[in-house]
Structures are given as C-alpha cells and as structure tokens.
Specification:
Rossmann fold; elongated; Tscrpt_reg_LuxR_C; LuxR family two component transcriptional regulator; 6-stranded parallel beta sheet; Arc Repressor Mutant, subunit A; 51% helix; 2 domains; 224 residues
Length: 224
C-alpha cells in the first residue's frame, strides 16, 4: 500500500526477536503508524533467513542474542545470500564489540531497544531507501573508532605459528637487537634466547636472523 498522498509503496518490515511480547509489541507499534507494512515476524535467526526468502522485506529489525542462530550470524547469511533486505540491529547491548560485529556482518543500522516509535519508523524508512541508521551516541563512537589510526601489526598477529615468547623475540630481532640485548630486555638467559631464536628461524623457514628480521619488517612490524 502506498504512503498517504504518494505513489511510493510502504517499506516492508520483518521483526525478529526471541521474546514474543517485545517482538509482537514492536510489530504492532509499527503497523499502527500506517506508514510501515509489517510483513512478518520471526523468533530466531534461522526463522529470519527463511522469512526473508518468503516475504522479501525491505528492512529486517534484528535482535542479536537469540537461540538457534544469533542476529550477527543471521545478518551475515542474509548478506552472503544477496538478499536485498537491509538489516537494522535492534538490541539491548551497546557494547562496542557487539556494534562492530554487527556492522562487519553487514548490518545497515543499529538501534537500542529503548528507541521510541518515531525513531523506529525513521530508522525503517532510512534503511529502506539505502541509508545507514545509528543512534547519536553509537554514531559518535563509530566515528571515533574509524578515525583512529590502525594499530601497527604485531609479530603474534603476522605469524600465528609463533608462541608469544617467540613473537616477542622476533620483534626485537626486527629492531636489530643482539641476543645479549634480547636477553636483557626480556630477562632471559642467553641460552634461552638462543633456543628461542632457533625456534623462530625454524618456524619461519629463515636461513638466519637477518632473514627472519627482514620477514618481520616485510609484514609491517616496525622496529621499536
């Protein structure tokens, strides 16, 4: 059905939440506005994926913590399947880890469950037309996160086959430290350092410490 006074169809919405009272309440709230078409509901991520295939909504309001399949994984499935629906996460959690996990999975928006009717409707309409939706506080934190310079790579991340101690030694090798200097910096005996260096060379298949240091620098590890 078009919006009153226009020929534009109403945005079609699927509401996904494992709590029936909240799920049905949001669906009824949106339907009562007359400017949103609620095409269905789902109680978990698996149901959401199936319901999107059946109803082809423009927007999915998706909870995060759900049984069977959580909202982040369900969002990822929808994105991977090239479903056209825009996912807006609607959850109680405002922790950065949850926000960024949802965004990385492909969510187009993130709202807290305390959002009012006007904010929900605005979010649905924005997402339905291709926009991104984030509350003011969350938007500020996301801007700060993406504006921050990326952390320099570490040996542990670049070479996951190394132990924590081996990664520390490799970083010092990349800085041109001698075995004696490494031993002093890490409070190790010279013999222990020699053994660790040998293990690093073997795991990196490097012929000598110079080659190992070069491999570290090529991986972006900046000498301290």
């Amino acid at each position: 059905m078009p919006e009153p006074g226009t020929t534009r169809p109403l945005p079609r919405v699927l509401v996904v939440d494992d709590h029936p009272l909240f799920r049905d309440g949001v669906a009824a709230l949106l339907a009562s506005t007359g400017v949103v078409d609620v095409v269905g509901t789902a109680a978990d991520g698996e149901q959401a994926v199936a319901a999107v295939a059946e109803h082809d909504p423009d927007v999915v309001l998706m909870d995060v913590q759900m049984p069977v399949l959580d909202g982040v994984d369900a969002t990822r499935r929808l994105v991977d399947s090239r479903a056209r629906a825009a996912v807006v996460v609607l959850t109680m959690s405002e922790e950065d880890a949850t926000v960024f996990a949802a965004v990385r999975a492909g969510a187009r928006g993130y709202l807290l469950k305390g959002a009012g009717q006007e904010e929900l409707v605005a979010a649905v309409r924005t997402a339905a037309t291709g926009g991104a939706v984030f509350g003011a506080a969350l938007a500020g934190r996301m801007a700060a996160f993406f504006a921050a310079p990326p952390a320099p790579p570490t040996a542990a991340a670049a070479f996951p086959e190394l132990t924590a101690r081996e990664a520390e030694v490799l970083e010092l090798l990349a800085a041109g430290r001698t075995n004696a200097e490494i031993a002093q910096a890490l409070f190790l005996s010279p013999k222990t350092v020699r053994n660790v260096v040998s293990a690093v060379l073997a795991k990196l298949q490097a012929s000598d410490r110079t080659e190992a240091a070069a491999r570290a620098r090529e991986a972006g590890i900046t000498p301290a």
